Amino acid sequence: MRTCVLRTMTKLKLILKDGTEVIGESFGFLPKGEVDGEVVFNTGMVGYPETFTDPSYRGQILVCTYPMIGNYGVPDEGKLDGKAVSKRLESLKVHLRGIVVSEYCEEPSHWQSKKTLADFLKKHKIPAIQGVDTRALTQKLREHGVMLGKIVPASTKYSKQMTFSDPNLDNLVAEVSPKKEQVLMPKGRPKCTVALLDCGIKHNIIRHFLDRGCKVIRLPWNYDITKLKGKYDGLFVSNGPGDPKVADQATDAIKYVMKEGKPIFGICLGNQLMALAVSGDTYKLKYGHRSANQPCIDEKTKRCYITSQNHGFAVDWKTLPKSWKVWFKNANDGTVEGIKHTTKPWFAVQFHPEASPGPEDPAFLFDEFVNKLTK
């Protein structure tokens, strides 16, 4: 017979900039003071370990719309070949400022579970609130757009004098990008060499390149790529957090490789940075795309792909040079989901073909890029 243990739960409050206050129970790390962030929502049903470790969420407080989170625990956080690439998670830490859920499952059930989500969040010092009407909160964010907010002790009251810090004003890419160059080798002899501009990459992207026999030179976001002296076959520009215009130094590498005429492939933030590198423009979306079921249409074939996404900014197609075309569009709102040069081997997508979590429909894009590198 199981014994029921009564516990006293600590209360925490989420306060939005418009004065909305939501109280719930703490199940993660208990902060000593206030935790500021941009409050966003994700509609994914599964994949919370991968989502929570995605560096693109840097600076954000995430509201999960799925009613129960934590039911299958968290897998092993081990590294792959000792090269600081997680086996199953998308980075070696949690980059979120905080998490808000409707119901947290305290007793996970899964054969790969190594720890509870609560223990995982406490290890990474991430506050979390449960017992919140996340559907009502999501409706507010959809109507108003993403809002600044903060997680505070339940006794804290909103006042008009409260200040809310905007993480998008900071260079979030610099916070998640590696500080030095790193070389990652595939099993067997490499087919090609990818210069990878790491702006906050998800590890499954690196796995895709290694699985395809690519040697990967992982570079900081502001790396002077001329130091490689052309000893690479193409450039990959990764996903990452925040406003792409703040990470302006990343476009220098893109411009240089374009002058060399080498193939370039960008994902998510990489899509936006490539647009900026050719004098295009980007803008902030009302509430962004954060889910594993976004439909994207190939403008040439009209085929629709279901994709995984996590971004708050988009490319303004009207600002692109005539030598560039819109490759993919979002079937829901018509926003740009991919761009491609009409003659050069340069292309990028706003969604995540590596999934993790989500559908793997567009994973063939990695093959397209690697094929260009090995010609």
Characterise this structure.
By secondary structure, the chain is α/β, with parallel strands linked by helices. It has two domains: 11-168, Glucose Oxidase, domain 1 (3-Layer(bba) Sandwich); 172-374, Class I glutamine amidotransferase (GATase) domain (Rossmann fold, 3-Layer(aba) Sandwich), CATH 3.40.50. The protein contains eight helices and 19 strands. It has helices at 48-52, 117-123, 134-144, 172-176, 203-211, 250-260, 269-277, 364-374, and strands spanning 11-16, 21-26, 35-42, 60-64, 68-69, 98-100, 103-104, 128-130, 147-153, 182-184, 192-197, 214-219, 234-237, 264-267, 281-298, 304-316, 324-330, 336-341, 346-349. Strands 10-12-11-13-14-19-18-17-15-16 form a ten-stranded mixed beta sheet, sandwiched between helices. It has a seven-stranded mixed β-barrel with strand order 1-2-8-6-4-3-9. Strands 5-7 form a two-stranded parallel sheet. Helix 1 links the parallel strand 3 and strand 4 (60-64). Helix 6 crosses helix 7 (269-277). The longest helix has 11 residues, at 134-144. It is globular and about 60 Å long. Mean pLDDT is 94; it is low at 1-7.
